[in-house]
Write a structure and sequence with these properties.
Radius of gyration: 19 Å
Distance between the termini: 36 Å
Strand order of the largest sheet: 1-2
Order of helices and strands: HHEEHHHHHH
Number of strands: 2
Number of domains: 2
Strand content: under 5%
Structural class: mainly alpha
């Protein structure tokens, strides 16, 4: 159950912030409590995993591969800790820096959406929901890039959105290739069924290019300075 908290808590906080209007102090408090709680939970994961092994959780009563499955091992727990740590200090810094803007509830709501997406990408157990969580985090990122509302910020967000759409399409093609080769989107089943076939090599190419664009890897980094 603890695995789901890393997605549910920031989503609920984002919803509360979206409904809070221009109550800036309240928005700062909610964001700080949320990121503090996520950081505390991420620290708790390590003794839990050491005691009981990898954590598996399904968000519905359906079975794999028809459910949203979350998997937390030592590596994903470490990434969750890093995401939570960066989110906590980003919130602390934002409390002073972002007060020059009036709509802080929108800013912190987008930040919570970004955190939920990043946490979901980290712990999801299948490619489809990895794609969904990735798009959730990217939508929040587009809005955050344009948040200051000036022409250059809109231009940077637009450029990022165009390249993000292209990269998402390439990743979706890669997921389609993996499914055609393995008949599964569940990461555990893919690791068992996968074999060296031309279709999977094509998927690797799509993934490398798509994720390279999103991560601004050379030579796909031209959008990063503006954003």
């Amino acid at each position: 159950m603890i695995a789901s908290y890393f997605v549910i808590i920031p989503l609920l906080s984002g919803f509360v912030l979206a409904m809070s209007g221009k109550r800036n102090k309240f928005a700062e408090l909610v964001a700080l409590i949320t990121t503090s709680l996520l950081l505390f939970l991420s620290v708790l994961l390590f003794p839990l995993i050491n005691a009981s092994g990898t954590i598996f959780y399904q968000l519905s009563g359906w079975k794999v591969p028809y459910t949203i499955s979350l998997v937390v091992d030592n590596l994903s727990a470490f990434v969750l800790f890093l995401v939570s740590l960066v989110a906590f200090f980003s919130t602390l810094y934002s409390i002073g820096y972002m007060r020059r803007f009036s709509s802080l509830s929108n800013y912190y709501g987008l930040l919570m959406l970004l955190i939920a997406g990043l946490n979901g990408v980290t712990i999801t157990g299948d490619l489809f929901n990895l794609f969904v969580f990735m798009e959730v985090s990217l939508i929040a990122t587009y809005a955050l890039v344009a948040f200051q509302g000036e022409a250059e910020h809109y231009e940077a967000a637009f450029k990022y959105a165009i390249l993000g759409s292209i990269s998402s399409t390439l990743i979706l093609f890669g997921i389609g290739c993996v499914y055609s080769a393995t008949s599964s989107l569940t990461l555990m089943q893919i690791s068992i069924k996968s074999a060296e076939t031309p279709v999977l090599y094509l998927a690797y190419g799509f993934f490398l290019t798509g994720f390279g664009l999103k991560a601004s890897m050379f030579p796909f980094h031209s959008w990063l300075p503006d954003a």
